[in-house]
Amino acid sequence: MEPSILSGDFGRLAEEAKRMEGAGADAIHIDIMDGHFVPNLTLGPKAVAAINKATNLFLDVHIMIYNPFDYVERLVASGADRITFHFEATEDVEDTLNYIKKSGIQAGLAFNPETSESFIVKYLDKCDLILIMTVNPGFGGQEFIPEMLEKVRFTRELCDKFKLKQNIQVDGGISDRTAKLCIEAGANVLVSGNYLFNAPNMKEAITLLKGTK
């Protein structure tokens, strides 16, 4: 269970990281956007480093930026434990995956809702995680796209067929209702932002989402 700090208070990143850790999160999901690949600007490597100092949790850095290869070294130095970039953001997908893994951390590959699941086949065994976006990337608080469940099922069936143990992550519109649907479809890593941060009690909300597994 990964709360997305995108939905937190950017003026209190260290405190938010500690709050997530105390609430039982398995990792912190950090969204980095460049204002070009997606129409929004968020955090950068310095923020990742600040969060890293505040917590011992796994830092899952999701970069929604063009030319992701160019940012790997800085994010690794900042404390990222996994870097997930978008298939649509570069022509050097395989080189970027290899570079991340050679840097000693996990590599993830994300797919936008409009991208065909057929592209997943080529890269599934070359990464540690496949991220199926269940909203269009760029902003929090969007409605879950139910058609993406079929893409999750497709990816899980591939993993089962080829006996692969890659993680399948979903991100966007994840609540107690949609989490259950995603897990039934084959996802095993959930990212949730607004649902957790708007909950009266984050710990209880995380426990509820974990209980859907």
Features:
alpha/beta, 9 helices, globular
Question: How would you sum up this structure in a few lines?
Answer:
By secondary structure, the chain is α/β, with parallel strands linked by helices.
Structural notes for this entry:
- The chain has 213 residues and is of the alpha/beta class.
- The chain is 37% helix and 19% strand.
- It is built from nine helices and eight strands.
- The protein has helices at 13-22, 45-54, 72-78, 93-102, 120-123, 148-161, 176-185, 194-197, 202-210, and strands at 2-3, 27-33, 58-64, 82-86, 106-111, 129-133, 167-171, 189-192.
- Strands 1-8-7-6-5-4-3-2 form an eight-stranded parallel β-sheet.
- α2 packs parallel to α3 (72-78).
- It is globular.
- The mean pLDDT is 95.
C-alpha geometry: globular
Mean pLDDT: 95
What is the strand tally? 8
The whole-angstrom Rg is: 16 Å
How big a fraction of the residues is strand?
Answer: 15-25%
Helix count?
Answer: 9
Helical residue percent band: 25-40%
List SSEs in N-to-C order.
Answer: EHEHEHEHEHEHEHEHH
- Spans with pLDDT under 50 lasting ≥5 residues? none
Q: Which strands sit side by side, in order, in the main sheet?
A: 1-8-7-6-5-4-3-2
Largest sheet: 8 strands, parallel
Structural class: alpha/beta
- The end-to-end distance, rounded to whole angstroms, is 10 Å
Secondary structure layout:
Elements: E1 2-3, H1 13-22, E2 27-33, H2 45-54, E3 58-64, H3 72-78, E4 82-86, H4 93-102, E5 106-111, H5 120-123, E6 129-133, H6 148-161, E7 167-171, H7 176-185, E8 189-192, H8 194-197, H9 202-210
Parallel strand pairs: 1-8, 2-3, 3-4, 4-5, 5-6, 6-7, 7-8
